[in-house]
Amino acid sequence: MSEPAEARSGQQIVLRLYVAIVVLAGVMGFVLGSIRPEDLEPELFGVIALPPTPFGVAIYGFVTIGIVLGVLLGLVVYVSERIDDAASS
Fold first, then answer.
1. Keywords for this entry (predicted)?
2. Are the C-beta atoms of residues 65 and 22 closer than 8 Å to each other?
C-alpha cells in the first residue's frame, strides 16, 4: 500500500517530480525527432553531435534537462543543508 500524503517527505516528491520532468523531456525529444524539422542538429553542450533521429533527440532531451535540473537541484540541497546547519548553531 502507498503511504499517506502526510508521511511522504519533500525530498521524495521533488525526486519524483525531477524524474517525471526528465522523462517528459525525453518523450518530447522523441516526438520532435519524429517530426524531423529541416535544420535539426542536436549537439550535447555544443560538443557531441547526435543524429537527428527520434532517439538522438530523445537522448539530447534526457541528458540536457537531466544535467541542468540535476545541478540546480543539487545546489538547492547544498544550500538548504548549509542554512539548516547555520540556523541550529
1. Membrane, Transmembrane, Transmembrane helix
2. yes
* Integer angstrom CA distances of residue 60 from 1, 16, 54, 82: 36, 20, 10, 33
> What are 8's three cell numbers?
511522504
- CA angle 74-17-69, nearest 5°? 35
* Contact (Cβ atoms closer than 8 angstroms) between residue 61 and residue 86: no
Q: Beta partners for 44? A: 48
Q: Using the Cα atoms of residue 77, residue 24, residue 16 and residue 66 in order, give the sign of their dihedral.
A: negative
pLDDT of residue 88: 63
Q: What is the pTM of this model?
A: 0.74
